[in-house]
Design goal:
The structure holds two protein chains of two kinds. Chain A is of the alpha/beta class. Chain A has eleven helices and 17 strands. Chain A is globular. By secondary structure, chain B is of the alpha/beta class. In chain B, strands 1, 2, 3, 4, 5, 14, 15 and 16 form an eight-stranded mixed β-sheet that branches. An eight-stranded mixed β-sheet of chain B has the order 6-7-8-9-10-11-12-13. The longest helix of chain B has 20 residues. The chains are: A alpha/beta, B alpha/beta. The interface between A and B is large, with 59 and 56 residues.
Chain lengths: 470, 435
């Protein structure tokens, strides 16, 4: 919340800054004072208009609760009201709340997918909808994934109803070294992107290692065409960004003439100042190590390596650098940099104490992330590791929330957090289990037993199969 | 395992020969026959000479057979992957390793995937370790609606992978077929009918059928390859998604009555399920496709298979446009999800027995090989898997895999990498010295 206020204040100052920057001509004697650090321009020009839908005070009883922070309560209860988790325990006061008897069922926090392209690569996947890769230059840090999001993508409803996904990060694709900004969405249909936007979630910068950028630009006969080219272009760009940051910091602190705005470098300045989190598509262990050294060179931090197929080889290094890995359970072999995949990747990282989570990168996979974690858990157990279901759920909600910088608001069933809650009709790590109800901010947005509580996007209206159970 | 035996002998390499089939008796098992029936507790499976003798309660052990006490665990037929590109692709992103298609070949229907199958491709070992013992391997269409002749393979750890080469012809219809034919569904229909007419001409008098070279609408080799299709001796697998396209194919069969058409994909099949059932066309479907990912899949739903089955269609699971080269092992998870669907009001799921059949006997029956593979009914290939739990449940693993009665290794490069990096830190020597 603090963040939102800060950004709101920055926006309010914008008009004044622009007047100073453009209107004030060079005057050596009367130097205007700076607007204050990070207040030279709006950092939130497309603000969230998401509002939680009305919910009813609800107490779910008789369930197995996985709280998302490693806790588990048998015969447990979960109470939420006014969009917030009120309490989790065994005997809560039901006063004023609807009571749901969940005998034999399980309750968890909503699933968070840190890596999705829903909206940017929506269904139907026709060329006219292909809005995920601005593959026209290796550095496009100036593009924002949110400007491509089609809020009517039928995929959002499948992720909600089949996967219990309540929050997801939409990333630009991986054609570019710096592909642009990500956006975090609540999984609630709206008419506009802003209506889905997670209030106050930090932006991310999507970066990509390896085969994709070198293939895309090598194929165009331009740099980069090699992995060394990838790193060279990245370093040259960070050097430029450092210079831009110095100029703007100086202006905002000390005043004078405002530097020329560069939308691309705005994003990189945000990374260097810690305001924007780096989400780096990177498969190979050796490349991740190089990226971590590059980050040290320029003074930024990688939040998460995405895909991270070889993270298991350098779990110690990742832990030492405090970098998370977002991984699949069992994708392998579709390209050379995924050739060394093992099903135990997630479990090995976890065992070694490195931060790790599941992710989908896929409109189908996002519907079954609980099953993907079940696979990773089973592989780890078979390799001799002890992994409890309550711990494994941290890979589905709290760890991605942390990596997205929103763990203070969602990701676990902690009192005060958003009531993003899934009631499963059995053990969510069983293939035979389905979401029965899903609440987002305490509002019931899916109910298996109520055909009217299944969203049908504009695109599907009046089409074959409309409104059918999907 | 039979197809390449002659070649294997010619190679004169002892290592290349399949191990001898064993007589195996598995007792005290929770037996799944694979025919749609529910599991049988306390059952016995008898394999003799590489073939199933019996499975169920009772069953006499042949003298000298190896006996395994399953300790009450699940014992099933090996999984049959209903539609894959296994063994013909090593790494999708490395074109040199991909033999699934040939965009620049003048030949199409005549292409035979069999010689391209590499029994040592890593996806074969990885899927074998997860209980997949047979796979339908299809070529991919590039230059024509016809992709060529697919094979059925086994996943045994030997150099003899072919169960049935030239087991079927594969063809693209719908949006992809339209593109391959020049740009429209109308062009695809004309192309198909023309090819069948040409094949008829070839069949009437092969010696007078001239090869008109690369400019021909159908080469001599392609015409020859379509003769068994025309005669119904070779199934014609057709990738088709939209309901109206399925009805078009049903209509076509009235004209070319002998065609043995198998629908592959069939996302919108449920909307014309009765017509498919009446036409007697089996279906190899995607299990969980529920997104309108194209305009020919607008009615996509996970209830497709359940509704087709309820209408009386023979329907198994295949991986169409779904990691066909590598991830056949996922069909177990897909089948399990169809069981879960049976608890969703308004949806159509499957019972456990029905779900298991969609990844064992039903894909085999769809391609006309139900008498050979896919179940533990007497006479089938001795493909058996012992599991440490419910095979459709996530977390269960195959503990013993038999192909043609031969126990298989379950080690692969993934398990080797795992073992090397269970402790990721480097020790007194680099990891490269640890193997």
């Amino acid at each position: 919340m603090k963040r939102t206020l800060l950004l709101g204040a920055a926006a309010a100052l914008l008009a004044g800054c622009a007047a100073q920057g453009g209107g004030e001509t060079k005057s050596a004697s009367t130097k205007a004072p700076g607007p204050g650090l990070n207040k030279g321009y709006s950092h939130d020009p497309f603000p969230s208009t998401y509002r939680a839908y009305p919910g009813r005070p609800t107490l779910i009883t008789n369930v197995t609760v996985l709280d998302g922070e490693g806790g588990r309560i048998e015969g447990g209860q979960v109470l939420f009201r006014d969009g917030r988790i009120v309490a989790v325990g065994q005997t809560l006061d039901p006063a004023g709340a609807d009571v749901i008897d969940g005998q034999g069922k399980w309750v968890t926090p909503g699933v968070i997918d840190i890596h999705s392209h829903l909206g940017d690569y929506p269904s139907p996947g026709v060329d006219a909808h292909s809005d995920g890769n601005e593959a026209t230059a290796p550095i496009t840090a100036e593009v924002w994934a949110e400007h491509s999001v089609w809020p009517q993508d039928p995929g959002f409803s499948r992720a909600l109803a089949n996967g219990g996904v309540t929050t997801l990060q939409i990333l630009p694709g991986s054609a570019n070294l710096m592909g642009g900004r990500s956006v975090v969405l609540k999984n609630v249909y709206a008419r506009t992107m802003q209506g889905m936007k997670f209030p106050g979630a930090p932006y991310g910068l999507k970066m990509a290692c390896g085969e994709n950028p070198k293939r895309v630009y090598g194929g165009k006969g331009r740099m980069p065409s090699t992995r060394m080219g990838n790193v060279a272009v990245n370093r040259a760009t960070w050097a430029k960004a450092a210079d831009y940051r110095r100029k703007w910091d100086k202006y905002e602190n000390d005043g004078g003439d405002a530097p020329t705005r560069d939308i691309q470098l705005d994003t990189l300045r945000g990374v260097l100042s810690g305001e924007i989190l780096v989400h780096n598509h990177c498969y190979r262990a050796d490349e991740m190590a190089i990226v971590m050294d590059m980050a040290k060179e320029f003074g930024y931090q990688v939040s998460t390596f995405h895909h991270a197929v070889e993270s298991y080889k350098i779990a110690d290094l990742l832990k030492a650098n405090n970098v998370c890995s977002a991984v699949w359970a069992d994708w392998y072999g579709f390209k050379m940099e995924s050739y060394d995949a093992v099903n135990e990747n997630l479990a090995i990282l976890d065992k070694e104490g490195a931060c790790v989570m599941i992710h989908s990168d896929d409109a189908n996979g996002i519907q079954r992330l609980n099953q993907e974690v079940a696979k990773a858990m089973a592989a780890g157990r078979r390799a001799g590791m002890e992994i409890s279901p309550e711990h494994a759920w941290t890979w589905l909600s709290l760890n991605p929330a942390r990596a997205l910088g929103i763990a203070d608001r969602t990701g676990s069933l902690k009192p005060g957090k958003m009531a993003d809650v899934v009631l499963w009709n059995g053990n969510p790590f069983s293939v035979y289990t389905r979401p029965e109800r899903v609440w987002v901010d305490g509002a019931l947005m899916y109910d298996m037993n109520n055909p009217k509580l299944r969203p049908v996007s504009d695109f599907e209206l009046g089409q074959p199969g409309e409104g059918d159970v999907k | 395992m039979r197809g390449l035996k002659a070649i294997a002998v010619l190679m004169a390499s002892a290592a290349a020969l399949p191990a001898a089939a064993q007589d195996v008796v598995i007792t005290n098992a929770k037996v799944v026959v694979g025919d749609g029936s529910e599991p049988i507790e306390g059952g016995t499976v008898v394999i003799r000479g590489g073939r199933v003798v019996s499975a169920g309660r009772g069953g006499a052990a042949p003298a000298g057979a190896r006996t395994i006490d399953a300790g009450g665990r699940w014992v099933t037929p090996g999984i049959v992957a209903g539609f894959t590109r296994m063994g013909v692709v090593e790494v999708d992103g490395v074109r040199d390793t991909d033999d699934s298609s040939a965009a620049n070949s003048v030949f199409n229907a005549a292409l035979d995937i069999a010689p391209a199958v590499n029994p040592k491709a890593s996806p074969i070992a990885i899927n074998r370790a997860e209980g997949i013992t047979r796979a339908v391997v299809a070529p991919a269409a590039r230059g024509s609606i016809f992709a060529g002749q697919g094979a059925v393979i086994d996943l045994g750890a030997d150099m003899d992978a072919l169960t049935r080469p030239r087991a079927f012809q594969f063809m693209e219809w719908g949006e992809t077929g339209a593109q391959r034919a020049g740009g429209s569904r109308a062009a695809a229909m004309t192309t198909l009918r023309n090819a069948l007419f040409e094949a008829q001409a070839y069949r009437r008098n092969p010696s007078s059928y001239e090869d008109r070279g690369k400019d021909a609408l159908l080469t001599r080799a392609d015409a020859a390859a379509l003769v068994p299709v025309l005669a119904g001796q070779m199934p014609l697998l057709i990738h088709v998604e939209r309901a109206s396209d399925i009805l078009t194919l049903i209509e076509l069969k009235r004209e070319f009555a002998a065609l043995k058409i198998v629908l592959v994909g069939a996302t919108e099949g449920w909307t014309v399920a009765r017509e498919i059932a009446a036409a007697g066309m089996p279906v190899i479907a995607s299990a969980l496709a529920d997104l309108p990912i194209s305009f020919e899949q607008l009615a996509a739903t996970q209830s497709n298979i359940g509704r087709l089955r309820a209408a009386g269609v023979t329907v198994g699971i295949g991986s169409i446009n779904d990691d066909e080269a590598r991830q056949a092992r996922l069909v177990k998870q897909y089948a399990g999800n169809l069981v879960a669907l049976s608890k969703v009001p308004g949806a159509a799921g499957l019972t456990w027995g029905q779900a298991f059949a969609t990844i064992s006997s039903l894909p085999a029956e769809a391609i006309g090989m139900g008498g050979e593979i896919g179940s533990l009914r007497p006479g089938r290939h001795g493909d058996v898997v012992i599991w440490d739990g419910d095979p459709l449940e996530i977390g269960s693993a195959a503990t013993s895999v038999f192909v043609d009665g031969v126990e298989q290794p379950l080690v692969n490069r993934q398990t080797r990498l795992r073992d090397r990096y269970l402790d990721p830190k480097e020790g007194t020597m680099p990891k490269a010295y640890q193997y």
